[in-house]
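To fix ideas, we reproduce below one chain and its tokenised fold.
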Amino acid sequence: MVTENESSAAPSCPAENNLEVYTKLLEWMKIHGGNLHENVYISHDDSRGTHIRVKKGGVSSNTHIIKTPVATTISYFNAIDHHAGDVHFRAYDVKFPSAFMDPVGPEEVAIFFLVGQYLRGTGSFWHPYIRTLPQPGSLTTLPYYEEEDLEWLEGTSLVQARKQKIALLREKYESSSSELRKSGFQDADKYSWDLYLWASTIFVSRAFSAKVLSGVLPELGMPEENISVLLPFIDILNHRPLAKVEWRAGNENVDFVVLEDVSADEEIANNYGPRNNEQLMMNYGFCLSNNPCDYRTVSLRAPPGSPLHFAREQQKQLFPNSSINDTEDPFYVFNIFYPLLAPEIPMEHSVFSPALFNAISVLAANQRELETLEISEHTIQIANRYGNSRAALSALSQIIIELVSHIVRLKSTEPDESRQPQNLKQTHAKIYRESQITLSESALVIAAWSLQRARTHGLQGGWDETKRLLSQHMSRIPAGKFLEHTQSRIQVRILERPSILLHSGELFSFPETLSLLQPCEADVHSTAQECLTTILKTASRRIPALRGITANASPFRFSLFACFVVAVHLTNRHKHSAASSHERQSFLPPRLSRWASFLLDHYLPPPDDVAWALEDEDDEGLVGEFDEVLSELRERNKELFEKLEPLTGGWHGDADAWWLSPNWVRWAWMMTEQETVQVPEDSLALLAGGDGEGGNVMLETETYLYIPQE
């Protein structure tokens, strides 16, 4: 198993798996002008396969390790027997009719050309190179997985990706093979599906961009992405994420250059680019257990008719020439070690890509928040202003649910613990599954932290205070769940980057909403608490659907609180400007006063002359029963409400003007549906080992009222 500082190659071996074939390859290269630096040598072991190591003395930065002659490269240019000045890309006896090459294109032609050279055996110019390649049947990329191997991928995205990959390759082969037969090519029947699959895999796993030939072909004359180039000997180098290397195109050679010092006995590694484990598995047949460049692609569709769907359509209309119309949105969950992040990116966006987080925020936004939707060429997002962090909190809740589902699905479909991988394909499938679980588990810790801050009140934002809260959060992670450097990195990620949530303590349970009244005079707080809890307890006794439900869980708890706060605000707001600072506290704390004003601006107060009814019949029936409970209480226990009349206004026989009138209760019911957040409860408990059954998980959620900070 390799670490993030180690390198790895596609775990597939040539038919003649010994150093002699590579020595012969090197001799062949030297005949044509190539070279291997004198202070490195060819080595082989079971974990890394054949690779290059440094001799005593090491090599310094900017050392040219390998020179591969341009004359030994394989690409589409060989198939067309191309001349470029003094350089001739020879076809060496494998020449296809233009009637085949023209319709299938450069990519397919190159694959068929490699098959043709393979079929020539020892007669091929490239035989010293081809004999070092993994032979048909010995590759370990996904198309070569057998039924028993696929069991180790069950539940992962690679199962479907493999099916799509094979279907696409089969379609390309059938089309190209048909064109080859139609062209009258004599040996068309020898170009089998198995050989096509082998050659296409070789190109995908070992080829380089056509830029490596730019020293000879400065103007390629065709799209560069359609042309890949095989570089004998350079392509035996294993992959190490973030290795500092360069390929330099010359007139006669393509040079592989290290841009960092490499000590004696260390391996010379290539850098395939910032590939995640899914890409490594798909293209190379291996992955890394601690790949710093790992990330997971999340499938998120905008349902037709959804705000996100309309926003995307509007974005395309506003920016018709933008690249957004040609590419998919980058919906990613990043490894916490992911190195390619902008320094100013917020903590949440460093784990959940901005496009993913913003898209979920839009889908979770209420109508009020959608009115502030911002659409630019590259971004669709809810504006960052007072009252809009609710959408971000809802997005975090949805993200947690997705992460938990992903973890449970992978854990519930993994092979029995008693089974061990029997080959390299199964070994790397196991590494892939475990890396995916770790990626989602570490992301879960980050998302749960942001929601914990939103649930924690009274924080002043100090460094010591944040570290204490973080310590409590991390203590909930079972010992040994993460490697030490992983757990440390989670904490560093949280502490080193600012949150997109500017404030903590914006989500409230019902008892916590009542605590917001504590800055008021003592009798106001206690009287309000007595009134609201009495109403809720009475309703739970009188309404059959609510029996057994406590006041803190009643569906009316937040509606009652909102009615009270708004009533106090409306009744006393004309006094605010005249009252002293001390007297103003008798009405409402500033935070609640601003919140009430904000709600009234966005949710118009109900009329006095029209009776409101909720659209949902079940909701309307429940609220209707609640109206009856309020009416009875008002008749039987007048003192309960009279104590609050200086704050809420009196009854005076006007039912429609009362702060708990049917219309106001329905107004608050509809408003709080929009201004609450469903938060997954105790999501970190999953890290203790609960796997769910059959990939399903029942994650309980709790409803919290969103009250923004000032």
